[in-house]
Amino acid sequence: MSNLVPEGLVRVRLGDLTKVITKGTTPKQYVSDGINFVKVESVSGNATLLPSKFAYIDRYVHDSFKRSQLEEGDILFSIAGSLGRLALVEGKHLPANTNQALAIVRLNKGAIHTSFCIQQLKGESVQLQLMNLQTVGAQPNLSLQQVSDIVFLLPPHSEQKKIAAILTSVDDVIEKTQAQIDK
Fold it and tell me: Which of 12, 30, 2 is nearest to 121 (CA)?
């Protein structure tokens, strides 16, 4: 990545924009109904969650896994296996919890527009960083520190909102087109 930063942009680390970047724990057992438990396979390719792929844990397990309790607005970022898959946690998914294959990125309010952050994390620059950062064993992995150290260029907040709106609308058109093709 070039060290030249265009005027009006600031080079930032993701960790400097967050309250916390953490991950969860895999429970010893799942239940047939209860608290939503989000795994990597619950994350679609278009930055949304697939409730049909949720597992479930009981209230006791959820309460004991405090570190990985999800909040509205959290960004989930896969750090094991299929790296860099993203999803935004919405109120309709809660209460919910997750395992160690998904990093929970909880942004500081006002530090960055959430949709812009998601678009940046999906972007080519970050995906190239991920390819260079991953450790390979049985499956590719990223540490939470590596996620925190992801760097991207940050425009003023008003520009973030405009850019995110444009890119999100492009994503929506691509998704609708793909749905038509699939039919």
Answer: 12
